[in-house]
Amino acid sequence: MKSLRIPFVLMALAFAGVAWGQQTPLQTADVEQQMSADEFKAAGLDKLSAQELAALNAWLQRKVVQETAKATESAKEEGRKEVVEKNRGFFDFGSKEAIESSIVGNFDGFAKGRQYTLENGQVWEQIEPASLAGVRKTNPKVKIKPGIMNNWFLQIEGYNTAAKVRRIK
Predict the structure, then answer these.
(1) Residue environment code for 83-100, b if the CB has 16+ CB neighbours within 10 A, otherwise e
(2) Which of 5, 25, 44, 118 has the maximal Cβ count within 10 Å?
(3) Helical residues (DSSP H) of the chain, grouped into ranges
(4) What are 72-113's pLDDT values in tens digits?
(5) pTM for the full predicted model
(6) Which whole-number Å values give the CA distances from 135 to 142, 158, 161, in the listed order?
(7) How far is Cα 5 from Cα 9, in angstroms, rounded to an integer?
């Protein structure tokens, strides 16, 4: 088991280099060229026949290519998810799930034109009249739900009234 540790470490380093767009020596050289003579012997690889060593090198090369492709696709997908989440609320961008957060600071009721900054960094502006008179809260929890035609509605936890809003930041 110990003798396989070094090739797998080399493979992991190759994955990291490829993920950053760098060509690594492992992509162009065999395992015996990647290791010092002492490392090669300590891993027990000197006991392999030339044919066995060639098979190991071929397997490592295929594995690097396969895992690199997986890592690249995974990184792309994570990047897409991040973009979608970051831009939710702008037009019809992102998922149809409600956004849950809290308003930063005081909430003094609804009023057209009022801006609401959420703790997640988003800023929403009320675009139609809605009334929630007499409500004074600090850092209230909110839910912003998508409606039809790219409309979004902000609702304060504990109240049924929702105000039509649009994301401005």
Answers:
(1) eeeeebbeeeebeeeebe
(2) 118
(3) 2-19, 31-34, 37-42, 50-86
(4) 887 777 766 666 666 666 655 556 788 899 999 999 889 899
(5) 0.51
(6) 14, 11, 11
(7) 6
